[in-house]
Design a protein that fits this description.
The protein is an alpha/beta fold. The protein has eleven helices and 15 strands. It has a nine-stranded mixed β-sheet with strand order 14-13-12-11-7-10-9-8-15. It has a six-stranded parallel β-sheet with strand order 3-2-1-4-5-6, sandwiched between helices. Helix 5 packs antiparallel against helix 11.
């Protein structure tokens, strides 16, 4: 049995990850640390495990093999490098860091100490993403020209998102760095890295961080990527649109179907939209983390996308602050 510690319950998904640990047949929650000791003690009591005031003391425990990190984003560099330095494996909430410098320091510590790290990028492994990747790989869309992804909810307007998610220092941003991470890494998945990034933010609820965001990615090929996110939308379903020179493929939570129209498929005319069976979900990010602990190696695509996500986030926030597009080296 792999004994894992929970490092902070700051993030809204922390309890979800604790549940994944408890439900996996090969893992268990063995300890809790939290920068908020009152919250941490309460969660440790709920889980029936010890609470540690000191992360260093927890990491010194020889029977702890890995740590699930849900700490504030601005603490990631200090915490993740400390965990890696203690030679404990890491499963962490996105984003790895808000800057390229911090992300590189974390990845260097992981490599230097030869520990496994997997980042929670869950939509990489959903069946609709698997299916859309297969469509692209088969050449059914030709050369991609536009990729548009959107994910939003009403957390700011309905008041259910915790106040700490509007703390600019802890979060290092607002809707984009939190919810918008998913559209950004999916856009990067399908189009690769862009040459320029341009971001526009909205502040509809008067928070210190953006509650509405649109980012445009300009690629050397002429293709464009659009990633949209917000905390102020009541009924906007998650959606992915892939458009190319020979067709289009769409997915939306509205009907939970993948639709395809292509001139490359002999079984369909160009004027027809056909529903494509959605593949089974692949193993989750957490399941991959456990498998890598057991078998060795890294989830290379996961870490590559996580690294690029930090790079794109840094560029997007710089663009919004400057009011102009930012070129990537």
């Amino acid at each position: 049995m792999i004994r894992l510690a929970m490092a902070s319950f700051w993030h809204v998904h922390a309890r979800d990850y604790a549940k994944q640990v408890m439900e996996h047949p090969d893992t268990e929650v063995a300890a809790v640390w939290d920068e908020d000791s009152e919250r941490g003690r309460a969660e440790a009591e709920r889980l029936g495990v010890p609470f540690f005031d000191s992360l260093s003391t927890l990491l010194a425990k020889g029977n702890i093999e890995g740590v699930v990190v849900d700490a504030p984003t601005n603490m990631h560099r200090a915490i993740l490098t400390q965990i890696a330095g203690a030679k404990k494996h890491i499963f962490t909430e996105k984003v790895v860091a808000a800057s390229v410098e911090d992300c590189q320091a974390i990845l260097h510590a992981v490599e230097a100490n030869q520990v496994v790290m997997v980042v929670s990028l869950p939509r990489l492994y959903h069946g609709y993403t698997v299916t859309l990747r297969q469509i692209v790989a088969q050449g059914l869309l030709g050369e991609l020209s536009v990729v548009r992804t959107r994910l939003s909810h009403n957390g700011a307007t309905a008041g259910w998102l915790p106040d700490r998610f509007f703390d600019a220092q802890a979060c290092q941003g607002g809707a984009l760095i939190d919810l918008g991470a998913h559209p950004v890494y999916l856009t990067r998945l399908f189009l690769g890295m862009p040459r320029r990034v341009s971001a526009q933010f909205g502040y509809m609820t008067g928070k210190t961080v953006e509650d509405n965001a649109v980012v445009t990615f300009e690629h050397a090929s002429g293709a464009l990527g659009l990633a949209e996110a917000g905390f102020v939308t009541e009924s906007s379903p998650f959606s992915v649109e892939l458009h190319g020179t020979k067709g289009s493929a769409l997915y939306s939570d509205r009907d939970r179907q993948v639709w395809l129209k292509t001139t490359s498929n002999r079984q369909a005319q160009a004027s027809e939209w056909v529903s494509v069976p959605i593949a089974e979900d692949e193993p989750t990010a957490f399941a991959r983390f456990v498998q890598r602990i057991q078998s060795g190696g890294q989830e290379s695509e996961n870490l590559e996308l996580a690294r690029d996500l930090s790079r794109l986030m840094e560029a997007a926030y710089r663009s919004a602050n400057l009011g102009q597009a930012v070129a990537l080296d």
